[in-house]
């Protein structure tokens, strides 16, 4: 069935390519400035008050024109089909790490003109978020959320095992292993609590950074997967999992968590601690507000906080029929006033539910200042209030991976390597050496066209 | 215009929806993908002719070997298991009373209309090594079940077991074939003193060999193209892709990743054609062998 779909897609692409050769596609890029239009988009839905409030504000900014929300997250298949058939959306919302791939293929527009024309103040955005959306010195997306990664500690598990959450740190790796062993619990021969989940493969970039290494060079052109610091980080984190029962058992048990529900791993005491994105505070606040929780910065071996940040961005496809309107729309979507209005809406919704509001962590520095000064109030839950302050302090130490011309292939190469090690198929150095070759080949090929 | 000619044109008229559909949605894209398999093509930038480079690359790609081996392993286990279980169920249904046979036929067929995406999710729940129902049941008889969904060597056997969930179509085909076996053949065999096993081997199997052969071909092709349920279970979300296990990397999943995750449409087209050739080859072997084992009444 999917082979048929692929064949259909490539066929459509051929037809478009032939039409383009006859000058039939891409010649209608001019936009009449005052026309009332409906912007189309991909990858964004208005499912919650934060999205809806900003969406309405952005629509008001381009009235009488408007944008029509889509459903579901960004799908490369959907986007490619739209581009191939000559009808790309006017706006696309995707992970910032994907921007480089589409930028190098000229599928999305540089925002240089947009920023200049709309006088968008780039100083309002956090530098790490802008870095992630910038390829070769050119900005390709306006950043949205700023997903921080911090350490979340289950106080109940720590109390049971006589460990002090305040003294728990990822800086001392031997001590971390000892704590993980102590926190791990078995019942009836089965795992009943994971002591510490390092969250690899996905958090390997943060472990590498914590160890003084990096998966890729600052310019995003050279893979550094065989850096001894990276190999050491992978070796340690895999050993940490093996010390808690091994990958197969560890993953099966973790897959059984009610991650977003009231019986989540903190509420049911199934996890000691893990590094996690800040959005999970909001999940816990809503699903189990009485959970005993300590949040601390994730620390490198030098004791300094390390906060790997990621998030989404708004971009404009190269053949958008209305790039000027789209630019104006994304400006409003990411500006300070829209974020503040969205935070107020979220706070009101939380208050109506009787759940704590833990704030919004956005890519907009000025919005964050106002939100945490004027909108976020003490929740009455000391753990959540302290957690919010910790994330606020940690985000100043945020780092991001640079935009890559072959982001998906690079990520797949190192994640596959980690999975091979976890499955016991390869040793860390061997797996990362294989990944290095694959990743560098992909980067070289993609960059050769830029 | 003669009546015959008018009828011929009418026949083509009635056939035209299928002919147009075949040309536009199957033959056209197939030719296009064959052309693309000799190019470097990513949909977004211009196409470059690369000759046989994509085919050379796939011969050297370790993931092609891994995904092909996974797919073959699954097919070799899944097809005989499905056929054996389906035949057993069909024989039970053939013996059941008319009303109860209708009821069980519906029950057996229901999973077939369950979306494969749902089957993938169900697999993760039922086969979870720590809390899944399968290991819970194995525990009742003192067996400590494996981590079916996360331990590499157990992933494919788990998927094979799960695939038995949707054998309703094969059961229905076998049931229809069994009901067409003339009763007098069984009566003659019984009069000759043939045991139930001998009747099954010498009467039932030859008389339904056409149906067995048909399901062998269809199930083999569909196994080699397995995608939906495995993709949903192991690669469907960003989180699952992160933890993707090579043991669950089936050929069409790898093809899909190359096309829509990495935008290597030319390479993915070459992968599609390799699979097409493998399927043609296997089918030809099966057809050849069928001449020795399949009995057609008209012969």
UniProtKB/TrEMBL annotation, chain A:
Signal peptide positions on this chain: 1-19
InterPro entries named in the record: Bact_solute-bd_prot1, SBP
Keyword match Nucleus: no
Residue ranges of the TM segments: none
PROSITE patterns (UniProt xref): PROKAR_LIPOPROTEIN
Record bears the keyword Signal: yes
Domain of life, source organism: Bacteria
Key words, A-Z: Signal
Pfam families for this protein: SBP_bac_1 (PF01547)
Protein name (database record): Sugar ABC transporter substrate-binding protein
Organism, scientific name: Actinoplanes auranticolor
UniProtKB/TrEMBL annotation, chain B:
Family, per entry: Belongs to the binding-protein-dependent transport system permease family.
Source organism superkingdom: Bacteria
Transmembrane parts of this sequence: 12-36, 72-94, 106-134, 154-177, 198-218, 265-285
Compartments, as annotated in UniProt: Cell membrane
Main localization category: membrane
Biological process annotations from GO: transmembrane transport
Gene3D superfamilies assigned: MetI-like
Entry-linked Pfam families: BPD_transp_1
UniProt keyword Nucleotidyltransferase present: no
PROSITE patterns xrefs: ABC_TM1
Annotated Gene Ontology cellular component terms: plasma membrane
Organism the protein comes from: Actinoplanes auranticolor
Membrane-protein topology: Multi-pass membrane protein
InterPro entries linked to this entry: ABC_transporter_permease (IPR051393), MetI-like (IPR000515), MetI-like_sf (IPR035906)
Keywords: Cell membrane, Membrane, Transmembrane, Transmembrane helix, Transport
All residue ranges annotated as the ABC transmembrane type-1 domain in the record: 68-286
Entry protein name: Sugar ABC transporter permease
Lineage of producing organism: Bacteria, Bacillati, Actinomycetota, Actinomycetes, Micromonosporales
């Amino acid at each position: 069935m999917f082979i048929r779909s692929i064949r259909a897609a490539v066929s459509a692409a051929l037809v478009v390519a032939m039409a383009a050769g006859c000058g039939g596609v891409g010649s209608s890029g001019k936009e009449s400035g005052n026309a009332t239009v409906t912007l189309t988009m991909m990858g964004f839905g208005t499912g919650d008050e934060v999205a809806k409030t900003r969406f309405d504000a952005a629509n008001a900014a381009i009235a009488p024109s408007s944008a029509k929300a889509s459903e579901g997250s960004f799908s490369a298949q959907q986007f490619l089909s739209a581009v191939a058939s000559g009808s790309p959306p006017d706006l696309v919302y995707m992970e910032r790490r994907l921007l480089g791939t589409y930028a190098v293929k000229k599928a999305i527009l540089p925002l240089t003109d947009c920023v200049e024309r709309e006088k968008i103040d780039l100083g309002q955005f956090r530098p790490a978020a802008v870095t992630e959306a910038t390829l070769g010195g050119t900005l390709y997306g306006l950043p949205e959320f700023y997903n921080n990664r911090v350490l979340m500690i289950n106080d109940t598990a720590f109390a049971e095992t006589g460990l002090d959450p305040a003294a728990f740190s990822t800086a001392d790796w031997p001590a971390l292993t000892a704590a993980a062993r102590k926190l791990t619990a078995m019942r009836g021969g089965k795992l009943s609590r994971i002591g510490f989940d390092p969250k690899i493969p996905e958090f390997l970039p943060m472990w590498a950074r914590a160890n003084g290494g990096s998966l890729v060079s600052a310019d995003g052109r050279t893979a550094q997967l065989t850096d001894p610091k990276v190999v050491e980080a992978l070796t340690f984190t895999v050993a940490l999992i093996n010390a808690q029962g091994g990958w197969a058992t560890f993953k099966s048990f973790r897959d059984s968590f009610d991650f977003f529900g009231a019986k989540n791993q903190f509420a049911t005491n199934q996890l000691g601690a893990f590094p996690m994105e800040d959005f999970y505070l909001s999940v816990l606040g809503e699903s189990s507000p009485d959970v005993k929780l300590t949040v601390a910065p994730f620390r490198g071996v030098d004791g300094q906080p390390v906060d790997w940040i990621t998030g989404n961005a708004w971009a404009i496809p190269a053949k958008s029929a209305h790039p000027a309107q789209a630019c104006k729309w994304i400006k409003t979507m990411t500006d300070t006033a829209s974020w503040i209005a969205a935070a107020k809406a979220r706070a009101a919704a939380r208050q109506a539910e009787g759940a704590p509001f833990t704030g919004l962590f956005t890519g907009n520095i000025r919005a964050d200042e106002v939100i945490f000064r004027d909108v976020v109030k003490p929740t009455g839950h000391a753990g959540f209030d302290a957690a919010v302050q910790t994330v606020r302090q940690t985000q100043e130490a945020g780092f991001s991976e640079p935009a890559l011309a072959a982001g998906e292939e690079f990520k797949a190469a190192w994640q596959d390597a980690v999975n091979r090690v976890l499955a016991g198929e390869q040793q860390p150095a061997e797996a990362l050496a294989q990944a290095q070759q694959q990743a560098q080949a992909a980067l070289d090929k993609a960059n050769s066209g830029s | 215009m003669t009546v015959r000619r008018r009828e011929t044109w009418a026949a083509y008229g009635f056939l035209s929806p299928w002919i147009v559909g075949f040309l536009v949605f199957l033959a056209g894209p197939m030719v296009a993908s064959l052309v693309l398999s000799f190019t470097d093509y990513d949909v977004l930038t211009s196409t470059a002719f690369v000759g046989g480079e994509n085919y050379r690359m796939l011969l050297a790609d370790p993931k092609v070997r891994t995904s092909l081996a996974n797919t073959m392993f699954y097919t070799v286990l899944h097809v005989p298991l499905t056929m054996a279980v389906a035949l057993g169920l069909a024989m039970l249904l053939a013996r059941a009373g008319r009303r109860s046979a209708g009821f069980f036929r519906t029950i057996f067929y229901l999973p077939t209309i369950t979306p494969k995406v749902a089957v993938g999710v169900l697999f993760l729940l039922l086969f979870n090594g720590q809390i899944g129902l399968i290991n819970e049941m194995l525990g009742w008889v003192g067996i400590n079940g494996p981590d079916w969904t996360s331990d590499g060597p157990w992933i494919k056997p788990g998927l094979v077991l799960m695939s038995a969930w949707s054998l309703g179509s094969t059961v229905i085909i076998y049931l229809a074939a069994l009901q067409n076996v003339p009763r007098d053949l069984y009566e003659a065999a019984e009069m000759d003193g043939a045991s139930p096993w001998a009747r099954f081997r010498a009467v039932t199997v030859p008389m339904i060999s056409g149906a067995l052969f048909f399901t062998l071909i269809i199930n083999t092709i569909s196994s080699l193209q397995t995608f939906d349920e495995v993709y949903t279970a192991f690669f469907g979300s960003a989180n699952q892709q992160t933890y993707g296990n090579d043991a669950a990397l089936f050929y069409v999943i790898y093809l899909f990743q190359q096309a829509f995750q990495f935008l290597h449409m030319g390479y993915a087209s070459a992968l599609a054609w390799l699979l097409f050739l493998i399927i043609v080859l296997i089918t030809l072997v099966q057809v050849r062998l069928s001449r020795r084992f399949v009995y057609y009444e008209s012969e």
